[in-house]
Amino acid sequence: MKKEVDARNQACPKPVIMTKKALDEIAEGVITTIVDNEVAKENVSKLAKSLNLEYIVDKGVSNEYYIHISKGDSTEKTEEVNACVPNTFKDMAIVFSKDRLGDGSEELGDILIKGYIYTLTESIPFPSTLLFLNGGVKLTVEGSPVLDDLKKLQSEGVEILSCGTCLDFFKLKDKLAVGEITNMYTIVEKMKNATNTITL
């Protein structure tokens, strides 16, 4: 089977996620992913390498790259063995202390937080809990650019908790659009009892 994935004009990490989805849909064959920048080409190539799949990169016109990834029976058998062990959730709490990711550029931070939360929706196992503190609560209220992705995570069973004191401080309590309001005691317990806690 041959399948083409047009990932041109797609921001990171979408080319990788689109390619992974296409690979998951076939037992064997060739997936050709088309990207239009060097970073996307490298990321898709790294995906193929991490899955132990053979791949060839062809340079097209206008900075386009064609990554041909071959998938065979042996890879499918390995995936079937792994799939026998259900692993939908990981005992992990992720703490969002602001409404962007990283420091330096606010504009870049806004782009990165969108990419991060979108990637969470496409990555199994899901974290068990997402905690939103301080400016991070702005991600869970009406008008948030990541609201749809957070709702998707919630529908999959991910617990989403926003600090009530923080919502009050920013006068956003009545604007909460996903998850539940919580208190500092519960936040501390969730962080303390999780096998792994990541703070962003």
Helix content: 25-40%
What characterizes the major β-sheet?
5 strands, parallel
Q: Indicate the overall shape.
A: elongated
Q: Which sequence of strands runs across the widest sheet? A: 8-7-6-5-9
Architecture (CATH level 2) name of the largest domain: 3-Layer(aba) Sandwich
Backbone CA Rg: 19 Å
How many domains make up the 3D coordinates?
Answer: 2
CATH topology of the largest domain: Hypothetical Protein Ychn, Chain: A
| Fraction of residues in β-strands | 25-35%
Distance between the termini: 41 Å
- Summing up helix and strand content along with how strands pair, one would put the structural category as alpha/beta
Query: What sequence of helices (H) and strands (E) makes up the elements?
Result: EHEHEEHEHEHEHEHE
What would CATH call the homologous superfamily of the largest domain? DsrEFH-like
The whole-number mean of residue pLDDT values reads 87
Using the coordinates above, name the CATH class of the largest domain: Alpha Beta
Point out poorly predicted stretches.
74-86
How many strands? 9
How many helices?
7
